[in-house]
Amino acid sequence: MSDRALDPESEAPVLIAGGGMVGLCAAAFLAQRGIPSLTVERLKESSPLPRAAFFHMRTLEMFRSLGIEQAVREGSARDFVPEGSIVAMESVSGRKLADIMPTLNEGVEALSPCRRLYLNQPNLEPILRARARQAGARILQGAEIQSVSQDADGVSLVVKDVESGRLHELRGQYLIAADGGHSKVREHLGIRYEGRGAFSNSVTIYFTADLSPWLSGKAWSIIYVNNPVVHGFFRMNRAAQAGFLAVNTVGDAAKDPEAASNAAADVSEAHLIELVRGGVGVPDLPVKIDGWTRWRATACVAERLREGRIFIAGDAAHLMPPNGGFGGNTGIHDAHNLAWKLALVIKGHAQSTLLDSYALERKPVAEFTVGQAFTRYVLRTAPWLKPTQAIDSQVDDFNIELGYLYGVPGAVHADPRMTRGMPGSRAPHVWLTRSQERVSSHDLFGNFVLFTVPGGDGDWRSAAGMVARELGHVPLDVFCVGRDLGDPDGRFCQAYGLSDTGASLIRPDGFVAWRAERIPSDPRAALQEALARYLATH
Predict the structure, then answer these.
(1) Does the annotation count 224 as an active-site position?
(2) Among 182, 536, 493, 133, CA closest to 355
(3) Does pTM top 0.90 for this prediction?
(4) Regarding the domain delimited by 8-82+115-194+300-400, which CATH topology (the fold level of the hierarchy) does it fall under?
(5) Most CB atoms closer than 10 Å: which of 167, 278, 461, 524?
(6) Which of 118, 174, 193, 224 is catalytic?
């Protein structure tokens, strides 16, 4: 960085490269914690193409914490039939092959206050952008990153205004690289992807056509099609009049796998219409092509997620097939994991070594999730790859969405219905009451939270007050379930694995940091050791 002073508008504690879905989430999560950021985005406006976005329960919990869950749900209801399903068909008009997910939200009530939904990214991004700006984040649209440098004190970006060509220098303490699969920041750092690489040159076709004769009355959110013309999946709007077809392979892959996997070789309008008609199974269907995008089906993870003061997140950190909708959700969870850690470090509540845990926690989760997405790609879209490609055993979607683990030796995931407040797992959802209002346990997270029960509350509460002061007034909320909070269903202690004197310490991101099933002889020392481990104050 040069010695000249920067305009205050060119500085922020955190810079964010990329103002798409993950970058905007990072800005919103940081702003939620009182940390200003400055986001650099090449596009002046969000892409108008209705890119696929299947949002999982855990992601909706994060949106709920931002106060945008209702807006997201309303946007989803305008575009898509709620509570849909995922099916495999010979063609849209043909024979059903399988019910992949018979009901989108079967069994979720016991696990989360939120429900899965679909929402187009062009409709989501303005909600995120408005929320981030409302909370104090700044977003610079229409600017390209030209160079990246860092020193002992921070990170500098040189960015160019895409219209005027004018160069600006930006400065921050940290940088989050959320600038996609072709990340300039990651490339500048020399960080490579590792994994399977690309195995299909795919194309997404955006089109208008009346599919209501075959879809009316059917709550099908995703329709996989497998026939001699095309292998891929459809997603249609609520009226079944417009949508897209993602094509992974064309023709007979068993006879010519190389040609079949090059689905984007011919993007002439006539050929795209032919593919849509082949997927629907109606040779003379009237089709209008609205647009198309090429993309490569890829399964890989960046070899490193951190370089000094720069952190890699979203597609810049991991690429996976769209099957299961895991890519965007995983990127949002990256941003959520990083935001609370950066906030504690920037505010002085934790040492910078806390930031080391970002890559330690998120890279194993990314590798696991990429493997699961690839397994679903093979089983749903490219079964001919199974004899030649080693795939991971498919695990339940709940394990991927809610059951990923942090710092549990020998395990990356578990069934969230069975974790019962185990340290390293996502804290269980339990319906409680607060001032006679029904709240989820997840509605209480934001700072560190210590849950106690009446048998040990006095000792735990006294210990928490002393520990918070000793550790520099770290934000620590204490809730006694049975006094401060009602437990109308009597589920809390069992769900969190506590006796009538125990306590559970929850991280700001809603993961269990530590648990004492019953009160120890010195609760202050036990709690201080647990909390200091995260704040790196030993």
Answers:
(1) yes
(2) 536
(3) yes
(4) FAD/NAD(P)-binding domain (3.50.50)
(5) 278
(6) 224
